[in-house]
Amino acid sequence: MAITVGRISIENPLMLSPLAGITIPAVRRLFWRLGVGLAHTEMVSCAGLIRDNGKTERMLHRAPDEGPLVLQLFAGDVKTLVGGAEVALSLGNHFQAIGINMACPMPKVLKKGAGARLLDRMDVAVDMVRELKSLGLPVWPKIRKIVPDGDGPDTLRFASALIDAGADNVGIHGRTAPQRYEGRSDPEEVLKVARRFPGMISASGDMTDFESISHMMDGGCVSVFMARGAISDPFVIPRIRSKMGYNIGNCPFPQEPTLEERAGLFASLAEDLLSLHGERVALVMLKRFMSGLFRGVPGCGPYKRSIASVSDWPQAMDLVLDWRRYFERGIWNERYGTEHGDARGGDPQAEAR
């Protein structure tokens, strides 16, 4: 039931977005377990790669058992972009495609002429795609909605120019750069381009539920980028997979995972974070994902507060492994896969309310 997106064969159209400081290998492994069809690296600086910056080079690391992975790069000029991409590939890292970030609205990226600043420099953006194609991998630029300034290009014209230059897939975020991440994304702007280039456009922005994703897929988009919505509720991935008919085969999680399954996934994330990134990063990221992995579980407040308050990794890991103690009074109910009652003889469901 595989599909082809931008010359890459993937299991399903749900893709993990490139998220700065978030889509590190351990986090990508979490989302592979949950069933995404493809993932992106963090946004990697080509200038850092050219300068042999060790921290930047470590961002290229692939964890064991990762699926299709797109390397997301940013640069303010063609020479730096291609040079950085050549360095990345020369280090022996294997990626299925190279993404060009033309969407990031943050000032530290814009001031380098990169990210969404390229939306004002279509000639440079086009040259970037054309030159990057010479490396032999599919090229995936990611842009935003563009409101024309005078006779400048709109979203459709800009995307069309990138495709003419050889782009294999264009991701379009339905917010403008000045909006950053505020307000509502404009799905119709994305669909206008998708109808013109069926099978070549991926939707980004407010892709948080089955209805919003179905709307984009039915309108001609080939895939969708999952971002902040998936971080706040990771189990949205298996829920949507199931509703789309892709919950077949290797996706281990049902739409409503048991408490044991949630705790097991949390422990796996903790182990990956420690082994791949060290204690400091592991502690920060574990706290970041705790709420999402236990979202909606009755009675988990004390557990989440305990982890949020720890200041060192051994304490955090003890809590990860000792999760049952925080639910020993039978706070959870049959929906979460247990038959334990309240030790005092009370009604677990009543206490959960």
Automatic annotation (TrEMBL):
InterPro entries: Aldolase_TIM (IPR013785), DUS-like_FMN-bd (IPR035587), DUS_fam (IPR001269)
Cofactor field: FMN
Domain DUS-like FMN-binding per the UniProt entry, residue ranges: 15-312
Active site, per annotation: C104
Name assigned to this protein: tRNA-dihydrouridine synthase
Keyword Nucleotide-binding carried by entry: yes
Residues annotated as signal peptide: none
Species per Swiss-Prot/TrEMBL record: Dethiosulfovibrio salsuginis
EC number(s) on file: 1.3.1.-
Pfam families associated with the record: Dus
